[in-house]
Design goal:
alpha+beta; globular
């Protein structure tokens, strides 16, 4: 696991009621009370399903890209190439977490 993957994993698992499990397409899936927050592939790729308005904000600001396979969906992808990318990924994970917890 890369250092950025490990930092993200450690941060997410500190949040209340967040667990991890293997993702069906490889990597780690993070869940809040059984609902997927997003997943992290071993190659440093983060995928998160966001509400459309949040998805559009993350893409417009350059903090995420349209999903690498389904660009018209509400999924975003973030490639972890820098500390800024890791921070953007954590921001997107937090946005989804707050959406799921009702704190958005």
């Amino acid at each position: 696991m890369t250092a950025m993957n490990q930092i993200i994993t450690e941060q997410l698992l500190k949040w209340p009621h967040v667990t991890q499990q293997p993702h069906r397409f490889g990597g780690i899936e993070f869940l809040y009370k059984g609902k997927e927050i997003g997943h992290l592939h071993g190659n440093g790729l983060v995928d998160i399903l966001l509400p459309r308005s949040l998805r559009d904000q993350f893409i417009a600001s350059g903090r995420a890209q349209p999903h690498h396979i389904y660009p018209s969906s509400s999924w975003v992808s973030i490639y972890l190439k820098s500390d800024e990318d890791a921070a953007n990924a954590l921001d997107a994970f937090r946005a989804k977490y707050e959406y799921l917890t009702g704190n958005s």
